[in-house]
Amino acid sequence: MLEVRNLSKSFGGLKAVSDVSLDVPEGSIVGLLGPNGAGKTTCFTMIAGFTQPDTGSVTFRGEDITGMPPHKICTRGMIRTFQIVQPFAGLTVQENIAVGAYLHHHDRREAMAIASQVGKRLGMGNMLDRPASSLTIAGRKRLELARALATGAKLLLLDEVMAGLIPSEITEIVGIIRQIREEGHTFLMIEHVMQAVMSLAETAYVLNQGKLIAQGTPRELVKDASVVEAYLGHGAAARLQDENHA
Amino acid sequence: MKFNSVGQIALVVAVCAYLLSVYFMASPVWMGFTINALIVAVIAQSWNITGGFGGMSSFGHAALYGTGAYASAILQVQYGVNPWLAFAIGIVAGAAMGGFIGALAFRYGLKGSYFALVTLAFAEVLRICASSFDITGGGSGLQLKLEPGIANLQFPDRTVVYTLLLVVVALVMLVTYMIKKSRFGAYLVAVRENEDAARALGIDTYKIKVQAMVISGAFGGLAGALYLQLWLFIDSTVVYGSAVSIEALIGPIIGGAGTVWGPLIGTLGLHLLGEGAKHLLPNAPGLNFVLYAIVLICAVRFLPRGLMGLAALIGTLKTRKDEDHA
Ligand SMILES: Nc1ncnc2c1ncn2[C@@H]1O[C@H](COP(=O)(O)OP(=O)(O)OP(=O)(O)O)[C@@H](O)[C@H]1O
Ligand SMILES: [Mg+2]
């Protein structure tokens, strides 16, 4: 469904992303992992059209969308959410979601009806009339997801929707994502919460300092020496091995 | 239209009662004064579309107002065009100017104070141009011939003028209401609240902003063309001067930016205040602008959502549990 080839981006002298290629098959949940500053969000901004890549290409449903503006990409069915949530603070939850629904439903009643439906599906039924600014962090993360869903997009790029949530909230949102996938959506998700990645993603890619260093099932990856080192520092894998043997 | 508090209903009823009472006031001064305020209310609503709903604060709405007035005046005075047609073209000219300024400013991603400064610069450049060319009457301005009659869009009877202006203001508010309740209106507010999120959700933010400037320009051009038909005379300071730009933004901010009634309420309130001050201190011309400035500072500090926002806090009505609430 999504094919990313040799994507690179530099900011000044810093190579934030270099030569990243990845595939997201339709109907799957793919994880994108990596330590802070690895370049994960930068990958999303390029894939979703928010910044131009220096090199490389992005193909969505067989169409080359490299460098296309975000609104056109969204109309084609791919949408990103933001790591730092971006609610329309002055609007109610329902109005927020309706902005997404307006993409393919020009009538206000229709858009508001879809917004309420999507909101209820995501367990926000009792907050529809509340201003978005009054939501907790968990509520805001959910609102990001709800708005994205309401656009009718089929491929969702989720940037750390679970960061800052308590375990019970994580369990809830994992269930929601699984349910949305059953309904025919595909996910590429950046996530630090390993428990969530393990239980959701079929495959995952690991970025470190802008480069892909590993790819595989989450279970394989946590055993991968290079991944462990990327997260815990040089020599960590060997130390862990020793500890296990000791 | 539904309001979400007793306070807002009371405010709107008070404004309507005042507007009606003008018909019965003994002194003609009130009607003349309110006529002026109604024209300002139209340019205020023009500002409200972009500044209030879209969050693009302009300091140069005179550019739109003056363009409407000058387009109509040039056509009538220099080319003998029918006043009704000239009036309509004035509106279109305002819309075109709005679209032009918007297309240029937003192409370069101008926002916030940069956008405000660029609009101010446009208005000033236009003011200087209007005072230097023959076609605009140069420094002496343009004077329409006094030919009362409906065919010439000149109405000597104050009561008729007042009634027509009430209708125009009502229509402008109706259009604003329809925008507010439309997809376009929702997109405009989304752009105001968070442009990145709006782009992610499939909104062509550049297009929305330029479209808003076109609508705002049409309202602004309308206000300028109305002014011309009322006074039959314009010059560059009167229609392109910064006083127009200030009046355009201050009413909505006081009344409640991004609301349908705010611009009218704020404009009337301010003009009543200014008029009152003039009677109390008749020897201090320009005092009304000093007062406006004080009120503006207070409003920005204490009433971030204007009078409509303040009124909303009084007797809040329970929102109904349905899909469509105001
Ligand atoms: N607009 C920008 N200008 C300059 N540098 C940037 C910009 N955006 C990101 N960077 C840098 O690029 C690198 C990658 O950042 P990015 O946000 O993609 O990391 P990330 O993997 O999402 O990290 P995190 O887990 O902390 O969210 C970082 O060093 C960051 O400082
Ligand atoms: Mg990130």
Automatic annotation (TrEMBL), chain A:
InterPro entries: AAA+_ATPase, ABC_AA/LPS_Transport, ABC_transporter-like_ATP-bd, BCA_ABC_TP_C, P-loop_NTPase. Residues 2-234 form the ABC transporter domain. GO terms for molecular function: ATP binding. PROSITE patterns: ABC_TRANSPORTER_2. The keyword Mitochondrion does not apply. It comes from the Bacteria. The lineage of its organism: Bacteria, Pseudomonadati, Pseudomonadota, Alphaproteobacteria, Hyphomicrobiales. Keywords: ATP-binding, Nucleotide-binding, Transport. It comes from Tianweitania aestuarii. It holds the Pfam family ABC_tran. This is ABC transporter ATP-binding protein.
TrEMBL record, chain B:
Its main location: membrane. It is found in: Cell membrane. InterPro entries: ABC_transp_permease (IPR001851), LivM-like (IPR043428). The keyword Hydrolase does not apply. It is a multi-pass membrane protein. Keywords: Cell membrane, Membrane, Transmembrane, Transmembrane helix. It comes from the Bacteria. The chain crosses the membrane at residues 7-24, 30-50, 62-79, 85-106, 160-179, 212-234, 249-273, 285-303. It holds the Pfam family BPD_transp_2. The keyword Membrane applies. PANTHER family: HIGH-AFFINITY BRANCHED-CHAIN AMINO ACID TRANSPORT PROTEIN BRAE, HIGH-AFFINITY BRANCHED-CHAIN AMINO ACID TRANSPORT SYSTEM PERMEASE. This is Branched-chain amino acid ABC transporter permease. It comes from Tianweitania aestuarii. The lineage of its organism: Bacteria, Pseudomonadati, Pseudomonadota, Alphaproteobacteria, Hyphomicrobiales.
